[in-house]
Each structure stands twice: as structure tokens, then as C-alpha cells.
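Example record used in the benchmark description.
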Amino acid sequence: MDLDSLRFANFSDLDSAITDWEQMVTKLKTLQNDAKKDLKAKSDKANWAGDNATITRTFVDKTAGEFADAHTQAESITNILTDTRGELVGYRTQLNDAIGRGALKNLTVRDTGEGSFTVTMNIHPDRAAKGTTVPEHTQADVDAFRDEIQAILKNATESDTSAAKVLNLLVEQAAYGFSGAKVADRDSGAKAVEEAEKMAKIAKKDPHDVTPTELNTLNTTLAAYKDNPLFAEQFATQVGPKKLLQFYAGIADPYQGYGTDPKQFEQAKLLQKNLGITLGTATLSDSDKMQSWESKMVKLGPDRLGIDDANDPTGFGVMSNLMRFGDYDDQFLNDYGDKLIAYDKERNIKGMSPWINNWNQADLNFYGKDDRGRDPMNGFMEALGHNPDAATQFFAQPEGAGATVDKESEVNEHLKYLTKDRIWLPDATLDGNSKTIAGHDSLGHALEAATTGYAYDSDPMSGKDPMVPGNADHRTAETAGVMEQVAFLYGSEDGPKMLHEQSQLADSLGKMGAAYIDDIDYSLSGVGDHAKDDGAFPAKYAGRANFGEQGAIDFLSVLGQDEKSHAGVTTAQHLYTLSALDAHPATSEVEIDRAKAALMTGAEARGILDHSRVQQAETTYTAESEEANKSLARSGDWIELGTGVVVGGGIAAIPLPGSTPAALVVAPLAAETAGDVLNTFVGHQVEKGLDGAEKDPTEQAQLTSRRFYQKGANELGGAYNAYLESNPQWDRSSESKNWAREIEFSYLGTGAGQDDYRGRAPYKD
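Model output (C-alpha cells):
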């Protein structure tokens, strides 16, 4: 900055700009609130169909989001300008004060242009007026005066240029529209950019030359700034895609010494997560630099990195392990996945995996004993599991699919390949289970995200993703389109075989079935595919899933074959039925009919699941086996989970065995909150499922299955009794008293006499 520019600076134009931006912030805040409370709220409540349900609603949601981003960006710009203006005014004051003090020693400064200046005497002694005493100064005074002026100009220049850099990075975040990146002030924005440049210097080094201190500093800084858009973009673009991959591969390679030192091992593990999240944040920028970065990263996928570390892995081999963590740009993930799938398909040959083989010893994943990270498809599936919108797009239903998916031509090619054609292999560490195929678990995570709209391990009850009444259901017509395909594939003739060969995916299938239990019940209602009951099973979102009656039956019958999938969807079914009884109190004949329909359909769904469970247990273990009894006993214990269920916002979060968010089943309810009937289950400890089932296996085999069915019937009867008790005003006519028999018939009548056409047969090895 030139000396005179600061010395005589007039900030009136900057003051006017700040005032204009402050007014803009206020106006945009009003527009943001109007868009959220009026525009989006009305859109959410509107019962739209056809294109309005998808295109228009999506447009409204995006528009409302743009108002929020516009306000955030305007506020950030105002903060930066205000902060910079305050700093420059302060530096101007410092400069003039310094010049005043210099004059006392007969020193002044003269601007020589381009940021330079000279120190001169204010009055030369030979030219002083007669009788005037000129102040004296030493060379030390000259040097000190020069250094002070230079320091002030340097600081002012830094304030001005860093503000410009931050503003440019901020507005370039969004190619169109506005950026949601928030900057509190110039100092924090400039600090983020400065730290990014420092960390980029470390990441550009040969990883073998990085000291433990440098690696610790890098991890600490990435952890602090991984969610900062300005830092993330500056860091990623400064290092470049290929160098970042080479750097991580070098650090993570256990043969470079990091695998034997516990402290270095932990640093390498932290780097995988911190770097992955940081790169994800960077991809959310739409700047030209990041678009170029993403394109290069995708292009690098099939290529070897040309390094001695980690068996010279491909770009896919490294990046897929980094993207296990973080929120990534949807289009980037889809472009990356398209190329990975295409590359993988060409090499999908039995006994000739390009990833898991004796010569590939690139252990680049530090999370999970059953997944060394050699198969890049696993990491990519995990990335989709954490990025629901990208997952939904990746598995989108093909255009032209019918009202229900009933043929493979209506299934997404990616989904078909990954579930039916791809050869998945175990990739466990020495401490892991050599028979576990972690890729199936990861595929399940991706499908959970694609169908539910939640990251597979998100907690809808947490502060990060709070349950807002009326807004907790993340399903859309697009997520339903993916779910219809999943139900078709796993409910097909090959479904039992697929489920049993992909056992790690069973819990995810149960969670997916649970998430769509209302639509499954709707598909079961009516007669065949006609006269569906919209009153008893109203759509909770636009473009609901339609499985068709037989499709729903087939899917449920397959889910019932596995303990884990049976537990998830059965619990959801029970909760949904109870909530439907709360939603339809006995205030009119119409409401009573709807409550009855919910009970009967719930009983039918439960019957399909339970008969399938019993038949599979008997087929797998034989009826006289102790293991069959244990299996049914475990399935009978699911009802105990009522103590951990949390309800709100029209959904229930159900904790299956395991306390992590990934073990939560999120299921829709018919009512926004828990009523009297649902509260008979939620928060209460229920009796042990099948006590004594494991005593004397031969004698107890038949008794276990009888008790299993009896328990199911009793729970349905309990739901009926709870409805009676919560509606004491209801005149219990003879028709109402027949409900119990009809419920029991709906439950048991789906059994032995109808199994041939009420679902898929149990799987036989």
C-alpha cells in the first residue's frame, strides 16, 4: 500500500458500501424468514401430484435455500468490510501519529510510489529561518522511524490484500447464486487462508520427510478447519489432487514405519478422517479452481500414482478411503462413481480381482478390522452412505419406469451391478473376520442413505440433525424410486439367495423396510392392486412408494427370513400400527373403520414376517435343532426394545442391539406425536420374549414356534385392547367384538395355508 494512499485515505465510499450492505443484510433476513415460513412451509404442506410434487417442490426448496445463502453471504461480506475498515482507520491513525512524532525529531517521509517511501529531514538546518533551532536526530532515530512506518504500511497492506483475497474466495464459492460459507470477520477469514497455505506446504513435501511434529500440526490444523470452506478450498487447490493422494498413501503405508509406531499409527488414522472431511468441504465450492480439481481427481481414478508407497495404488485406491468421511459434492461423487463402476465392471472376473489379491498390500483404511481398504468400492459406498442426496441420485430409478417396478429393465444399472453381478470379496485384517464381506455392509449403508434421506449413521434425535415437527421425514419421490427398486430386487425370486449371501446387508434392508412401513401397508391394503386405503394409510410425502400388493408381500417374506431384518421391520410395523390407532380415535364410523384397517393390515404384514421367520429357522436348522429355538427366541425378544424408542416429528427412532447411531431404525408414524395407544409400548419394559425356549431342544422345537406365533397374536391383541381403553366413549358393538377374531385370522391366515402364494419360500443352501 502506498504511503499517501493510507495517510490521506478517505473512507467515505467504503462507509457507504458498508451501510448499503448492512441494509441489504436486514432486507435479506426478512426475505429469508418469509421464504422459510411462508414459501417453503406452504410447499411442504401442499398436496401436490405429478411434476408439481417433484419439480416444483424441489424448485421451491432450492429457492428458499438461496435466500438463506444470500443472507449468509451478505452478512459475511458486511463483516469483512466492517472489520477491514476499522483496521485501516486504525493504521491511518498510527501512521499520522508516527509522522507527528517524527516531526519532533525533524524527520518526515515522502511517498515514492509502488509502496516505497524515503525518510528525509523535515527542515534542513542550512535552510532553517534565522534564529530557528532545528531538532536533532541520530541515525538510530532515522532507522527506527523508517521501521515503524514500514511496519504500519505492511500491516495495512496485509489487511487490505487479505480482505480482497477472502472476498474473492467467498464469492467464487458459488458459480451461480450464493455461497453458504460464513465468515465472522476479516481476521478469521484471513487466518483460515493463511493456515491453509501453511498446511499445503507440509502436504506438498515428500511424506517420508515429514516429521512427527509436522504431521501432528497438520492433523491439529485440519481438525480445527476441516469444515471451513475457505480453508478447505485453498488447501486442496494449493496441494493439488495427485499430490494429496501421494501424500496420504505415503503417510498411511505401514511399511514406511507408521504401522509399527503406535503414535504415528494414530496420526495416520487421524489424517484419513481429517483429510477426508476437509476435501469433502472443498468439493462443495463451485469455483473454477475446484471444478478443475474435481475433474482431475476423477481422471486420476484408474491411474497408478507412480510412487513406491502402498504398492503404487490407483487414484481410486486412495481417494475412496479418504471419502469415507465428509460431506462431498453430489455431482463429484456421481462422476467419480460412474468412472469407478465402469472401470470395475471391465475387471469383474472371478479369481482375478484388481483390488483384493496377493500383490496388493496397500492397507489404506484405518477404520474397521474387516475392511483393509483395498477395494475402493467399499469406501465409495461409505461416501454415499454419508451423502444421501448423492446416493439417491446415483441409484435413481430409470426414466420410463412404470407405477411399480416389476422388471429388471426398470432397475438402475449401478444398483443391478452392485447387488447381483459384482463379485464382492472379504478384505479383513489379521484381527478381523476372514469371512465377513465388508463391502456388503457398505452397500447397505449407501442404500439406506439413498432410500431414507438420512446419512446411515445420523441420529435424527441429535442436535446436529434435530427432529423438527413435520420436517423429520426426509423421504421424497426420488428416494421412494430407489426403495421400489430395492424391494423388487430383494423380493424377487433371487431375493432369498441374495439376502443370505449378503448377510451383512440384512440390517440395512430391515431399516429400509422400516422406513417405508406406511407405504408397505398401503400396498397391502385393498383388494389386489385396487381399492387402496388412502384414508387409513395417507401419504406422508409426495410421490410415495408403490410396491404393489404382491411386491410388498414378497419383500416382507424375504425380510422375515433374517433375524436382523425381521427385527427392524417388525418393530416399525408394531409402532406404526399403534400410532395409526392414535391417529384414528373412535370419534366416528369413518375413523373406526380406518383404525380397523390399520390393525388388520398390520396383522397381515406381521403374519407374513413371522411365518417367514419360523419357516426359515426350521429350514436352516431343522425343526428339532437347538439353534432353531435360539434363533426364534432372539427374534421374539425384539419387543423389549420399546424402552429405548424415541418419538417426535412424525417418526420414531428405534435402537436395535448396539448403541451407535448406525444401529437406529428410523420409521414413520401415522401421528406426529405419541398418543395413549403408542405409549403402551414406548418407554415401557415388556416381558422377555420366549422364556425357556432353549430348554430341551427336541421337546421345545414345536413349542417355540407355537409360542412365537402366540406372542405375535398377543401383541396384536394388546394393540386392540389399548385402542378400546383409550376410547372409552366407543360403543363396543358386536361388530367391534369380532375384531379380535379378524385380527387373529389376518395374522395366522397368512401362514401355512397360504405360504405358497403369500411370499417367497425359505432359502435352502
